[in-house]
Amino acid sequence: METFIKEEQTSRGKRWVLPRRKFPNSLRYIPIVCWVVVAILIAGVGFRIVRHLLDDGSLFDLLQFLPPVLFAMFPLCFVGYWTSLAIFGETVVEADGSGFLVGEKVGPFLKMRRISFSRVSEISVIEPPGGVTTIFLDRGAIRLGDPDNGKTFAIGHSMRLLNTLSEGIKSELDPKIPILREVGELKRAAVKRQPVPISDQAILDMPFPDGFLIEDFVPEQSLRLVIQPKGFLKGSGGLGVFAVIWTSFISVFAVAIGYSSLVSNEIPGYVFLFLTPFIAVGIYLLRTAFRMGTNKITVIAGPDLEIREKWIGGSESTRYPKAALRAIRSGDSDMSVNDRRLKELKITVEGSAEKGVLRGLPEAQLRWLGAALRHCLRVPASLFDSDEHLPGYQPKVCLIEKRRTGVLVQVPKVGFFRTSGGLGTFSLVWLAIVSVFGFVIIHFSRTDQLPWFFLPILVVGIFGIIGLLMLFFAIERGHETVSIEVSRSTLKIDRRTPFRTQSQEVRLDDIAEISSVPSGETVNSREIYQLQVTLHSGPDIHLLKQLPEEELHWLAAELNSHIEN
Q1: Could you report the per-residue pLDDT of 528-555, keeping only the tens digit for each?
Q2: Tens digits of per-residue pLDDT, 190-229?
């Protein structure tokens, strides 16, 4: 496999072709299996339709098997398409004098998108979305444009190739445009970020974000502003469109099944019971999108923090006493729309978990609002800004024992239903839906039509295996017990799960840093963090994905303090 970039001169300008990404050979079977299963499904549907036409069957009879097959084909096509691009695709970048054309090429198929020179204010070599750096070592991506509106491409390529490509791209642009390397040189799997902090005063001095109606603002004293609703479609950040599509599809599906049941009297009542949760999800999405789009928000700071929300059909008011406020910051919420994480304002109150409010507002508004509230209420952006080691913080899970020769930290099992942000619950719900869905489609299958009879078994088997794997990881993570012992010269880690026992011991002088970092996993659109022990030699150690983020920060600081001493 080639490990260098091919640079070609075309009639319009330069072209760079990156080699295929390096993946384990076993992953190459993922897209192949997906497309084979899709081909079998299409062949089975074609066979059934031809047989149906030859038998002069009713058109409505087709509704008994087409929706389940389409439901199974959609995720398979999605996974097959993106894994084909990632594993077999070559990244192509072409400069034509007025802009860049970037895309992925798989065989004769090439899909390109355009980035105008005028929109490129910076070139950034960044950590790729989706945790690729954590899974495959020394990987990154390139982004052209500012951090909010930049276009990201070349995801998952090595840092060496991306650094070379960024220099070639810069040669086609204004020499003043900088190259920012947010990831920098990676030491094995450890991502070394050097963020540049922006002061609250600098944020407040920036151009004022649109959408706020300021009724009163006295710096370091009081703030009162109103955020007007933006409407059902724009204010919900795309959730409204998705909710309408989801509800329409489920409604048409339910009406078709109901009509077929009246005509043929062959569909039992439990099929409608199976559709109930999907209808409930659609109603919930519509309600959430409607509230986000019609919500009028009033934020009052001074002497306490009060947030009033009023929408068509309801209202809500929440007050946070100033004495109980510990931190205010903007960040990602646990909701994603079209693969884009919605932002929110995160408020930490003494004695309770961090709470997210004002979900869905633009990042510029949340950044300014967070800075203004911190300025008026005089609280830090994070619990860890004012005191790195947080002597007053009380861990909720960890048990720590100070010893004469060091410290012993014990992490008991968190529990099946509390692990990984709901992975256990999600795996059980997944298996329940797959079981009911499989029973329904197998019930209506006919053994005299062999392709159609085995298709449901194949589809249900694939989704069932996925559910069992999630259940396995949930059990293992929820019932894992960990002990970390720091002595005079070594760090010893013992991990026990229902399926395995593992012990590791490293010398303290071989430890570069202990930190809390994203694991690259998300559950219910929430980032899962882990404790990372970065070593000068050998692979880094990752553990404790079951702990909350704030407890991992505390534990990392506590262990670092003992190692340094």
Answers
A1: 788 888 888 777 888 887 777 778 888 8
A2: 333 334 455 666 667 666 666 777 777 777 778 888 888 8
Q: Nearest 5°: phi and psi at 506?
A: -130, 155
- Check if the beta carbon of residue 136 is closer than 8 Å to that of residue 23: yes
Q: What three-state secondary structure class fits 312?
A: coil
**Residue in 271, 277, 269, 313 with CA at minimum distance from that of residue 295:** 313
Nearest residue to 124 via CA among 149, 96, 98, 90: 149
CA-closest candidate to residue 551, choices 355, 323, 399:
399
Are the C-beta atoms of residues 14 and 169 closer than 8 Å to each other?
no
Q: Which residues pair with 222 in a beta bridge?
A: 218
What is the bridge-based pairing of β-strands 123-126 and 109-116? unpaired
CA–CA dist 134, 189 (Å, integer): 6
For residue 295, what are the CA distances in angstroms to 287, 298, 343, 409? 12, 10, 16, 46
Give the model's pLDDT for residue 387.
Answer: 42
User: Is the per-residue pLDDT at 136 higher than 50?
Assistant: no
SS3 state of residue 115: strand
In angstroms and rounded to an integer, the radius of gyration of the C-alpha atoms of the chain is 27
Q: Which residues pair with 364 in a beta bridge?
A: none
